[in-house]
Design brief:
The strands form three sheets. Strands 3, 4, 5, 6, 7, 8 and 9 form a seven-stranded mixed β-sheet that branches. Strands 10-11-12-14-13 form a five-stranded antiparallel β-sheet, covered by helices on one side. The protein folds into two domains: 195 residues, Trna Endonuclease, Chain: A, domain 1 (3-Layer(aba) Sandwich); 160 residues, Yope Regulator, Chain: A, CATH 3.30.1460. It is an alpha+beta fold. It starts with a strand and ends with a helix. Helix content is 38%, strand content 23%. The protein contains eleven helices and 14 strands.
Length: 374
């Protein structure tokens, strides 16, 4: 990793180090960093347990347990400077233990975690908010196979070889290399996905969707997942035609939203139960610092976008600024997502709305970030 020196028009190499040499520990530091900032793994994840050991007849405990945007469980194993030889076997055991967890059990496990963290949050409400669902109708968690994520500074050959073999046999595993760097007394952290290569991820998802029929998942869920994948792929194509690069580095996944991060804010396209929306979403805004700073510019922003809606979401971690379609009134928008004949109109609305939304909101968001750094 290098630091750019604008003055000298040169680059300066950062010194790569080891966590142990810097005095960092696996559970006290690396695990906490990931738990507080799961988005560093390249997607939206909701951490629902830490050091979980609630498995029957065993004292083993997994590092972090999360839910992804599909409502599936993600087992996250952190190893500091070296994975060791048995990390794959260990994670596979945890995945097997988690495979039988029901929706109600997962909600209970998450509520226990929230209580341990001494928050007053409600587990079910948090999950519904994270999945961007208006209610728990047809809520089904852990419907697909469990996913595994490994995080370490160095991966042994026996680990990478086994992971690649498992990937080839449709076990969903990712490896992230995490490296600390030093420069002029400052410490930096680099996190990069090394298996599978990020550029191949979307192709792998598409191939599996076509070849594999998800066991234990209702036909309705399968059809919805296929629709979401196809819809977001078409949206990405249309954005590219318009020379809008918002989603160029984002893979289409069977989620109800897709977006791109700008610092702690995510600009996203979202499919709701009764409407469509574009938004600037702050996932970790418990103190509402981001929202309140943006709200201070409300009058200025609403002169350009009168239809802005502000959701502070008190008593929740998140907050958002959005534009949402209306089903009644002068500018009604009553397209149904599951009818493909409507997609052209929906995608046009998304492209037009996000282009204007981003053009107006992003400069203010950039200004707010500078204010927060001052």
């Amino acid at each position: 990793m290098y630091k750019i020196n604008r003055v000298k028009n040169d680059i300066q190499r950062l010194e790569e180090s080891l966590f142990k040499d810097l005095g960092y520990r696996e559970r006290e530091h690396l695990q906490e960093w990931i738990a507080k900032n799961p988005e560093v793994l390249g997607e939206d994840l909701l951490i629902i347990q830490k050091e979980y050991q609630g498995f029957n007849d065993t004292n083993e405990r997994l590092d972090l347990l999360a839910i992804d945007k599909s409502g599936d469980l993600v087992i996250i194993e952190n190893k500091l400077d070296d994975t060791g030889r048995n990390v794959v076997w260990q994670a596979l055991k945890y995945a097997s233990y988690c495979s039988t967890l029901t929706t109600s059990q997962i909600i209970r496990i998450y509520q226990e975690y929230l209580d341990q963290e001494q928050t007053e949050s409600n587990a079910k409400e948090n999950i519904l908010e994270f999945l961007e669902r208006e209610d728990d109708t047809d809520l089904l968690l852990n419907a697909n196979d469990q996913r595994i994520i490994f995080i370490a500074n160095q991966f042994r050959k026996e680990v990478t070889s086994t992971v690649l073999w498992l990937l080839n046999h449709e076990v969903n595993i990712q490896c992230f290399r995490v490296s600390p760097y030093l420069f002029d007394g400052d410490e930096f952290l680099q996190i990069e996905q090394i298996i599978p290569i990020p550029e191949t991820t979307e192709f792998m998802i598409d191939a599996k969707q076509k070849e594999k029929e998800n066991k234990g998942v209702s036909k309705k869920v399968q059809e919805t997942n296929a629709l979401l994948l196809e819809f977001w792929s078409q949206l990405k194509q249309q954005l590219k035609i318009r020379n809008l690069d918002y989603l160029d580095r984002v893979s289409a996944k069977p989620h109800y939203s897709i977006g791109f991060w700008k610092s702690a804010g995510k600009f996203a396209f979202c499919v709701g139960r009764k409407s469509f929306r574009v938004e600037l979403y702050f996932m970790n805004d418990s103190d509402k610092i981001y929202f309140d700073k943006m709200y201070a510019y409300r009058e200025q922003l609403e002169k350009k976008i009168p239809e802005l809606q502000w959701q502070r979401l008190d008593n929740k971690k998140a907050s958002r600024i959005k534009i949402e379609t209306k089903n009644t009134g002068e500018h009604s928008f009553d397209y149904k997502f599951d009818d493909k004949q409507n997609w052209e109109g929906i995608i046009k609305w998304y492209c037009d709305t996000m282009e204007n939304f981003y053009k107006v909101i992003y400069p203010v968001w950039g200004k707010v970030q500078q204010e927060l750094k001052a």
